[in-house]
Amino acid sequence: xxxxxxxAVVICIIFLFSxxxxxxxxLFATAQGAVVATVTVGNSPYGVAYDSAKGEVFVANxxxxxxxxxxxxxxxxxxxxxxxxxxxxxAYDSSKGEVFVANxxxxxxxxxxxxxGNALVATVTLPVGAYPFGVAYDSAKGEVFVANxxxxxxxxxxxxxxxxxSDNTVVANVAVGNGPYAVAYDSSKGEIFVSNxxxxxxxxxxxSDNTVVANVTVGNSPEGVAYDSAKGEVFIANxxxxxxxxxxxSDNTVVATVTVGNSPDGVAYDSAKGEVFVPNxxxxxxxxxxxSNNAVVATETVGSGPYAVAYDSSKGEVFVANxxxxxxxxxxxSxxxxxxxxxxxxxxxxxxxxxxxLIAATCAIAIAIGKKTQSVKPTxxxx
Length: 383
What we know:
The chain has 383 residues and is mostly beta strands. It is 11% helix and 46% strand. It has two domains: 51 residues; 298 residues, Methylamine Dehydrogenase, Chain H (7 Propeller). Helix 1 packs antiparallel against helix 2.
């Protein structure tokens, strides 16, 4: 009988190891990487915008003086548009089918591209602005807000220029804090949030009269800005201290501060997942924040120097401009939460894993029975 058990145990062990060797995912279904594509673009890509009508992503290449157009159908560049001066911030105007690109150089201009032919159709001169950078589109007013960034604490106009998309003319200039950097439109409140990099504040502009209605103190060197329409919150990337400030638009107060990677820059809101994507320039990663609890739920590795980011609502993908490698990383939001940073990934139990576990348990039982039937040594008590 003991001989039979020994043979059974050997057979069980051999069968178990054959299962392990016959598959690359026998025991565990490992999480797949969230980056699904890497697209080569121009030099120093700094701005990204998604065109929902065309299913295209526009990338401003600051050192190439071009804008690359990526089709989200195959994640390939379909055109490179030559424009003047250093293109940085970029925004899509859904009403006009146009893309507004800020010339971050010294010419104080904004370029207008038509998405019907991906061609330059207008150049807007900013009479008051200097070094335009961040851009946002206000769909209710048909206006484009451009932050005129200063490259030193004492230079620049510290204004936001307002362009009417009906005739591409500047209709207002709004004084904000020192060093305005990025801009985001809050469709619920009809307000524009502007990060001021040198004063560690965010200016809130009402689009009803283009005046500042609040100034909110945030973290060190605020840069990227994004509006979360579901929560009525605005997320601000603080590049100087590796955090993201969360502002409630109900009273314009900071309600949370989230620690992310080093030198966070751009911000994008994923409306389908209720997540906020933050590229960390000095960490070569993207932090994914859940807006349900304002906590980091994943960290994705991308190219070198990730700078700007945009969300593609049709594909459920996030496009990240990597300024150091002249590429755009494409992240699928369906996989972005598969690698949580707060706890280890729990292996997925597969049918093959269940079979292997059952066999291992059978082997253990057989061994236990074998030992049970052996002669038991008597217990000796010392007196």
